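Project outcomes to date are best conveyed with an example. Our students and postdoctoral researchers have been running inverse folding experiments weekly, and each run begins with a structure described purely in tokens. The record below, which covers 263 residues, was selected by the lab manager from last quarter's runs and is presented without edits.
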């Protein structure tokens, strides 16, 4: 006790005890704040999921079932993940009135908050691909245009055309143009495989390679049409066909006009 009393009378005892008290208060406050923040985040997440569920019941359940289990005219959404919902709803492809036709990109029916709520609800049903964050979409820093062009020609050009302009598929389907599509939606399409498109998992095309493909698409998007109309950028075949048909049509028209005038 005498040793403790001697240390208590030391001139450094006061500042040391004050520092110790401040450290204890700060630690307690940090733990309490983290717990409160976690509880708040969890509560907000639950509210978002419930909001998404209500939107789903009103706008999606008639085709996909009350529990997203699917029906004869629409597939199950269990396990498709938030990325699939963000792509389909964020690009305006869903909801759609006629499920027998291919979904087209159009003005979204739901705003960003409603789309996020729908995605959160579907993601809560079963694990699936998540929506990529901003840090995962830094294609300008992590992507390579040259590598992206090679990957695109090897994996995507047979459907989307070598310039990303889109193309026809079998049975009346088509691969849409990639011009003007948001990087997030391009990434989501690769990991979810919407409609006729295959799924490109991270083992098939790594995240870095996906960013390179996006970088090449955005580079192609900026290329000017120096020759006028692009004609789908499919090369001399389309240009030659147009020139032949149009040129031959003009020549036939001139010949008919001259023949009629000579009478």
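After processing, the design step wrote out the following sequence:
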């Amino acid at each position: 006790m005498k040793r403790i009393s001697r240390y208590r009378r030391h001139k450094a005892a006061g500042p040391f005890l004050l520092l110790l008290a401040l450290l204890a208060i700060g630690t307690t406050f940090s733990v309490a704040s983290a717990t409160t923040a976690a509880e708040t985040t969890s509560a907000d997440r639950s509210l978002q999921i419930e909001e998404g569920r209500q939107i789903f019941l009103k706008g999606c359940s008639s085709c996909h079932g009350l529990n997203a289990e699917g029906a004869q005219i629409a597939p199950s959404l269990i396990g498709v993940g938030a990325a699939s919902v963000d792509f389909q709803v964020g690009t305006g492809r869903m909801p759609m009135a006629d499920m027998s036709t291919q979904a087209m990109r159009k003005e979204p029916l739901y705003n960003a908050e409603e789309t996020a709520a729908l995605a959160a609800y579907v993601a809560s049903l079963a694990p699936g691909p998540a929506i990529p964050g901003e840090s995962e979409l830094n294609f300008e820093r992590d992507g390579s245009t040259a590598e992206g062009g090679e990957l695109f020609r090897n994996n995507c050009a047979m459907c989307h055309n070598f310039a990303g302009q889109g193309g026809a598929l079998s049975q009346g389907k088509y691969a849409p143009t990639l011009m003007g599509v948001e990087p997030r939606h391009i990434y989501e399409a690769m990991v979810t495989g919407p409609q006729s498109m295959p799924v490109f998992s991270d083992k098939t095309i790594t995240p870095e390679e996906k960013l390179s493909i996006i970088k090449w698409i955005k580079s192609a998007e900026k290329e000017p049409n120096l020759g006028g109309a692009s004609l789908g950028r499919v090369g001399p075949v389309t240009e030659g066909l147009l020139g032949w048909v149009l040129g031959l049509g003009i020549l036939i028209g001139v010949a008919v006009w001259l023949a009629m005038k000579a009478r």
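DSSP finds eleven helices and two strands in the chain. The beta strands are 167-168, 174-175. The training component of this project remains on track.
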